[in-house]
Amino acid sequence: MEKKSFWQSGHKPSLFGAFLYFDISFMIWGMLGPLAVVIAEDFPMSPVQKANLVALPILGGSILRLVLGFLADRIGPKLTAQIGMLSTLIPLLLGWLWVDSLNQLYIVALLLGIAGASFAAALPLAGQWYPKEHQGLAMGIAGAGNSGTVLATLFANRIAQHFGSWEIVFGLAIIPIVIVFIYFSLFAHNSPNRPAKKTLSEYSNVIKQRDAWVFCALYCVTFGGFVGLANYLTIFFNTQYGLSPIMAADITTLCVISGSFFRPVGGFLADRIGGTRMLMILYAGAAIMLASVSFLPPLIVVVALLFIGMMCLGAGNGSVFQLVPQRFGGEIGLVTGIVGAAGGLGGYALPLILGRLYQLTGSYTPGFIILSLIAGGSFILIFVMQMKWRRSWLSKIHTPRTAITPIDSAKA
């Protein structure tokens, strides 16, 4: 049977709906990153408190991704996404009308994780429509919704300054999520090829598999690195280089753009040269860039380094999810939730590493050195695992290696 091209296969309205849901949810999830500098004018915070504020939405998203991943498998990704969008209104209303202390803001920050959990419904909705040979690009396009972070860094502080209130940013964010909910409800659909519901024992079997934990570790670094930096860089530029809140957020936007829009590129290239090979290139690049940032060079240099580093991390997100559906195609909803949760935990840890070490040492150098070493360790992990996957593949099936990526050996 002749294989269809990407544009001939799948369901484009559902793919676009998944992208929109992910995009606006990411915008909401990442609002506190740029706003933290402005909020600090009302609620003075130490470096660790600022790190906690921007890390809590990531922690909430990490936990809730497991919940949405479970629901996506049980009731379908479309209904799960609709529930997620309606639930996202809760922290937006609270942030707009209720918060008057830092502790209350921490509660809202944690609840913003509902938006971050969108990953566990958006990606299965898109991925289940497409065959394996187009998984990298489909998942990359849907996952490019992390470009919503660009909207947050670009507009959040400007809106707060224009209206003289950061709370209004939460209120105005209700408008786009309602619009996306309407589009999504009308045009997005579950794939007819959606896998059957899994039993609890099947969930347990997936979690016990080594490859699931390998993907968790890989995504913890790529996605965790991207979202953690996206949420923390405004604080970094404001503190280290003395930039105003809006200028710090604008510079952060430049860095975030590269990671957001190279996610589908990473998936596309992984389809062509293999996910494991692509990831080794990207982890090496990220490690080198982060190590260079640790020297805290002039602003223009550090922006270039972070631009390339976040490009590697963003493309790495697409590459990881080029591999996941091939290994766990029948459990994609559950595994997406598990792997996504691991990515969220990485994003939660990153601001805490930078914030705590800055408070202890007065410098960001130690934090970026540690981040570089973590990326280097991920390079070693994928290098070792791809050799194991390849040996397993070659020992069982004698199809030419160019027909399949090394990860398929683990499925054979």
From TrEMBL:
Superkingdom, taxonomy of origin: Bacteria
GO molecular function list: nitrate transmembrane transporter activity
The UniProt record lists the keyword Transmembrane helix: yes
A cellular component annotation (GO) from this entry: plasma membrane
Membrane topology value: Multi-pass membrane protein
SUPFAM superfamilies named in the record: MFS general substrate transporter (SSF103473)
GO annotation (BP), single: nitrate assimilation
Coiled-coil boundaries: none
Protein keywords: Membrane, Nitrate assimilation, Transmembrane, Transmembrane helix, Transport
Transmembrane regions listed in the UniProt entry: 20-40, 52-72, 79-99, 105-125, 137-156, 168-191, 212-235, 241-262, 274-293, 299-320, 332-354, 366-385
CDD domains (alphabetical): MFS_NRT2_like
InterPro entries: MFS, MFS_dom, MFS_trans_sf, NO3_transporter
UniProt subcellular location: Cell membrane
Keyword ATP-binding: no
Domain annotation Major facilitator superfamily (MFS) profile: ranges: 14-390
UniProt record similarity statement: Belongs to the major facilitator superfamily. Nitrate/nitrite porter (TC 2.A.1.8) family.
Protein name per the record: MFS transporter, NNP family, nitrate/nitrite transporter
Species in which this protein is naturally found: Fontibacillus panacisegetis
